[in-house]
Hints:
This protein is α+β, with helices and mostly antiparallel strands. It has 4 helices and 6 strands. A 4-stranded mixed sheet has the order 5-4-3-6, covered by helices on one side. It has a two-stranded antiparallel ribbon with strand order 1-2. It is elongated. The mean pLDDT is 87.
Amino acid sequence: MDWTAHAKGTCDGCGTFRVRATSVTVRQRLDDGAWSYRVRCPSCRCWIHAPVRLRVALQLLLAQAPFEAWSLSAREREHGDGNVVSVADLEQLRTDLDRTDIVEALRASLDTVEH
């Protein structure tokens, strides 16, 4: 008996589909360990990328799905050398943006910056 594992997916344009597990590429991002998959919709042939739980990734790998490790480019990983922005900083920014006087002061400072 020839047993083949399948995977289900959803295409935004075509709806639900089913493909062989070997048609799905399991991906792990080395930067943060996140798991995802990549597959082509069998109807429209568009690429579908989506996050996936570790358990599902392992099931696909056991079913002989191809594996791909990937990483963001150096430019995308760039963190800069400034201070880390905290949630409190973002909350303060949101509060400040509600104040007209601060927004006007920011606009004025941008107008004086040379390009």
